[in-house]
Structures are given as structure tokens and as C-alpha cells.
Amino acid sequence: MKKIFLSAVAIVAIAFVTNTTVQAQSTEKTKMVGGAAMYPSKDIVDNAVNSKDHTVLVAAVKAAGLVETLKGAGPFTVFAPTNSAFDKLPQGTVDNLVKPENKATLTKILTYHVVAGNMDSKAIAAAIKAGNGKAELTTVEGGKLWASMDGKKLVLKDAKGGMSTVTIADVNQKNGVIHVIDTVLMPN
């Protein structure tokens, strides 16, 4: 009888926790990315895996062994290229990068898309204003990115002179913020 009672209590507790989680997520202020709601209560990886526009990025993060890092406490600011951004690279580039022998190069490229800290668009805009129209950001990879405004659009310039535009800003996560970008950024 005691086991049945404990089992019933456990089932009720699980149902309560599940229902509370669903209710909390339904009241969160989310943004839609790749057809999926991005929940501020979830980490970067747990949200990204649901975006149909970021399947290449998620596969690359897994191949580079960066999943646990991006699930960590952070905070991280991630400039997340879409699948179409990866499609702009020369044919075969992504297939080559995800090979085990190219893990170091892939890791370098991916960590170049990450800045330590939680920099929403207002913080980046303030840095741009303070820098007389340009902000220099140091990436986790150790390289530099330059942020500026093109009208009302936030743009990034990489170390090779390539330009990327933020298409969706301020996708809040429990361990940082994601800004969706339209072009892969390249370090030196």
C-alpha cells in the first residue's frame, strides 16, 4: 500500500512540474526563429536545435564539440548564421569543415561568432555610439569583429572584410543572447 501511495505521489509531482513548466514557457516572451519559439528559460543549444534555419550551425557545433560549452552558464552573445548563410560559402566548405581532421579550424570559426557577456542590441548600439559609429568586439576565439549601423540595421565586419547583417536581434536565452546573421563571419 505504501509503494502504491508513493507511486501516486510521484506521478502527481511529475504532472505538477510538467504542467508548471509548460505554463511558465507559455507566458514567456519568446521570439520566433526558424519556425520555433525561442524560450528565455532555455539555454542556447536547447533553443537552437528547434530552429529549422540553424540545422547546419547545430551540426557544426556538435562536430566541434562545443555543445557543453554553449549549454554552460555563460553568458554568451552568439551571432548565429542561418543555413542560407552557410550556403553562401564555396560548395563543399561545410562538408570539409565538419570532418574530424578539421575540428580545430571549425572550432576557430564557430568561436569567432561568440562574444563573452550578454550584449543585446542596445548594448551594442551604445558601444557603436561611444566608438563614433563603430564598436570593436573581441570574440571568444580571440579575434575582432566590428559592429556598426547601416541605417537601422546592425552590421558586422569580420577580420577578412566580410559583412554580415543581423536579421533577428535580441533572442534572449537563459545563458546569453543570440543575434541571427545572414553571412558566416571569418577570422584571420
Automatic annotation (TrEMBL):
Task: Indicate yes or no for the key word Signal.
Answer: yes
Query: Sorted alphabetically, which Pfam families does this protein's record hold?
Result: Fasciclin
Signal peptide location in the record?
Answer: 1-24
Q: Which UniProt keywords apply?
A: Signal
What do the Gene Ontology cellular component annotations say? extracellular space
Q: Which InterPro entries does this UniProt record tie to the protein?
A: Adhesion/Biosynth-related, FAS1_dom_sf, FAS1_domain
Q: Which domain of life is it from?
A: Bacteria
Q: Which PROSITE patterns match?
A: FAS1
Domain annotation FAS1: ranges: 41-185
Q: Please indicate if the UniProt record lists tRNA-binding as a keyword.
A: no
PANTHER family membership: FI19380P1, PERIOSTIN-RELATED
Which named protein is this? Answer: Fasciclin domain-containing protein
